[in-house]
């Protein structure tokens, strides 16, 4: 298990009601499962549309259960943005 930070942006930040929080998880899937437990409702729906960066690298289409999290790492939760 690794300990790090999850950062929420835009609609994810609004739905979570916070800008960031710690995670304790081995994979992105485990971290997101814990987020869904702590923030049921709107954030769970927003997460379905989000992309994720792990320590600055895009997750893309990789299965979240295969994405390992590093000690002291950062997960960025990025909902779709309008504009560009």
Automatic annotation (TrEMBL):
<dbReference type="Pfam" id="PF02597">
    <property type="entry name" value="ThiS"/>
</dbReference>
<protein>
    <submittedName>
        <fullName>MoaD/ThiS family protein</fullName>
    </submittedName>
</protein>
<dbReference type="InterPro" id="IPR016155">
    <property type="entry name" value="Mopterin_synth/thiamin_S_b"/>
</dbReference>
<dbReference type="InterPro" id="IPR003749">
    <property type="entry name" value="ThiS/MoaD-like"/>
</dbReference>
<dbReference type="InterPro" id="IPR012675">
    <property type="entry name" value="Beta-grasp_dom_sf"/>
</dbReference>
């Amino acid at each position: 298990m690794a300990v790090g930070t999850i950062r929420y942006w835009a609609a994810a930040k609004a739905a979570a009601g916070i800008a960031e929080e710690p995670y304790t998880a081995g994979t992105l899937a485990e971290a997101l499962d814990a987020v869904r437990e702590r923030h049921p409702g709107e954030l769970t729906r927003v997460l379905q549309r989000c992309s994720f960066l792990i320590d600055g690298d895009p997750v893309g289409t990789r299965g979240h259960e295969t994405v390992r999290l590093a000690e002291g790492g950062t997960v960025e939760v990025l909902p779709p943005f309008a504009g560009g």
